[in-house]
């Protein structure tokens, strides 16, 4: 019997310079890198097309993945028409959205245009603005929503909405027997040193717990050099002695860095993601899913779609239950609580099915 030949799709991830970049650390970047790699592994072509760069250039950024950078929108759009069939639209410069709308209108018979929504704002006006171009002139492809609340919102006015849970690479996923055990409870914060990310709550908790003999806490941070408050927290953490702190530059993605994060999460018992504003991250935080894949108990706010993703848990923060140190002490008092949470997360991971190959298969089915 001859092998079934798949139809190769030519897929472009398209957006504005600085809004996403293959080499940065961030949820959008991790999402697109992993999805592109999974699409290539499935036999398709997947490239990054970015416009608004200082110069036009081409480079290979991963196995079978090209990064094509153009100085202006028109040049990038011409490349889309010449070389691709499916366009996954990401972030655009606001002033270019109607130009791109006209481009979609002219070329809808040649290309299938899809949209991936990453963020959510609590402002109804800004939220309407974020979706206005798709409502004025509907995309002829799918509207991919990365959180349940985005999906519910878009489904009110479009039948093209698809919930696509962000992808996590296979090596992150652990079975309970593969999760290391420690004499001390390993608690880790990974993220920017910004108030919106909850870094101040982490510092307070670590300060309260630093003398506990069975507690081990680490902060692995990075910051935007243009945000003075973020730099100030970074400088304070770097200079103090009581909290273990390591720094990673923001524009420094590499496979080695990914391996380091995976190893760190494997060794982490409790991952701290105490977001003060969910708008500071993609609407289903990538670190939440990476932590879940690594069987970390996650302390995060019961906000947005996090409870629907993570599941019902005593580790979620609420207005009446917002003391990180109190939750950690609760686990220290009965280690079985951590073991039970790991087993629950393992089952939840199977229900969600967010391994990169599974997510790519769902996307391909939706756009085929």
Describe the structure.
The chain has 13 helices and 13 strands. The chain has helices spanning 27-41, 73-83, 97-107, 124-136, 148-155, 199-209, 228-239, 255-266, 286-293, 306-310, 324-333, 336-352, 356-367; strands spanning 10-16, 45-51, 57-62, 65-70, 86-89, 112-117, 143-145, 161-163, 185-192, 215-222, 244-247, 270-272, 297-299. Helix 1 (27-41) packs across helix 13. The two termini are 25 Å apart. The longest helix has 17 residues, at 336-352. It is of the alpha/beta class and 368 residues long. It is globular, with a radius of gyration of 21 Å. Helices cover 39% and strands 18% of the residues. The strands form two sheets. An eight-stranded mixed β-sheet has the order 3-4-2-1-5-6-7-8, sandwiched between helices. A five-stranded parallel β-sheet has the order 11-10-9-12-13, sandwiched between helices. The relative contact order is 0.13. The protein has two domains: 10-165 and 355-367, Glycogen Phosphorylase B (Rossmann fold), CATH 3.40.50; 170-352, Rossmann fold.
Quickly describe the structure.
The protein has 368 residues and is α/β, with parallel strands linked by helices. The protein has helices spanning 27-41, 73-83, 97-107, 124-136, 148-155, 199-209, 228-239, 255-266, 286-293, 306-310, 324-333, 336-352, 356-367, and strands spanning 10-16, 45-51, 57-62, 65-70, 86-89, 112-117, 143-145, 161-163, 185-192, 215-222, 244-247, 270-272, 297-299.
């Amino acid at each position: 019997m001859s092998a079934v030949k798949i139809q190769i799709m030519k897929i472009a991830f398209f957006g504005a310079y600085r809004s996403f970049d293959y080499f940065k650390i961030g949820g959008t970047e991790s999402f697109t890198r992993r999805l592109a790699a999974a699409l290539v592994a499935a036999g398709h072509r997947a490239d990054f097309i970015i416009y608004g760069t200082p110069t036009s250039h081409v480079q290979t950024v991963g196995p079978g993945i090209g990064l094509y950078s153009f100085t202006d929108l028109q040049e990038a759009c011409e490349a889309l028409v010449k070389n691709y069939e499916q366009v996954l639209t990401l972030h655009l410069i606001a002033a270019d959205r109607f130009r791109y709308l006209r481009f979609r209108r002219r070329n809808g018979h040649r290309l299938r245009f899809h949209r991936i929504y990453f963020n959510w704002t609590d402002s109804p006006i800004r939220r309407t603005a974020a979706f206005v171009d798709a409502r004025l002139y509907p995309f002829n492809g799918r509207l991919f929503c990365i959180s349940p609340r985005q999906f519910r919102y878009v489904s009110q006015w479009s039948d093209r909405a698809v919930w696509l849970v962000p992808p996590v690479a296979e090596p992150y996923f652990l079975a309970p027997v593969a999760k290391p055990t420690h004499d001390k409870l390993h608690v880790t914060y990974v993220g920017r040193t910004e108030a919106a990310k909850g870094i101040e709550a982490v510092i307070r908790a670590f300060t309260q717990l630093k003398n506990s003999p069975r507690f081990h806490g680490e902060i692995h941070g990075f910051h935007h050099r243009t945000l003075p408050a973020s730099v100030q927290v970074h400088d304070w953490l770097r200079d103090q002695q009581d909290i273990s702190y390591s720094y990673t530059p923001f524009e420094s993605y590499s496979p080695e860095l990914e391996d380091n994060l995976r190893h760190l999460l494997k060794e982490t018992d409790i991952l701290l993601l105490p977001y003060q504003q969910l708008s500071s991250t993609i609407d289903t935080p990538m670190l939440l899913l990476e932590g879940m894949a690594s069987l970390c108990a996650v302390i995060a706010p019961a906000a947005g779609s996090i409870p629907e993703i993570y599941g019902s848990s005593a580790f979620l923060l609420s207005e009446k239950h917002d003391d990180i140190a109190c939750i950690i002490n609760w686990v220290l008092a009965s280690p079985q609580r951590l073991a039970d949470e790991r087993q629950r997360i393992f089952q939840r991971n199977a229900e969600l099915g967010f391994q990169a190959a599974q997510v790519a298969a769902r996307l391909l089915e939706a756009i085929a």
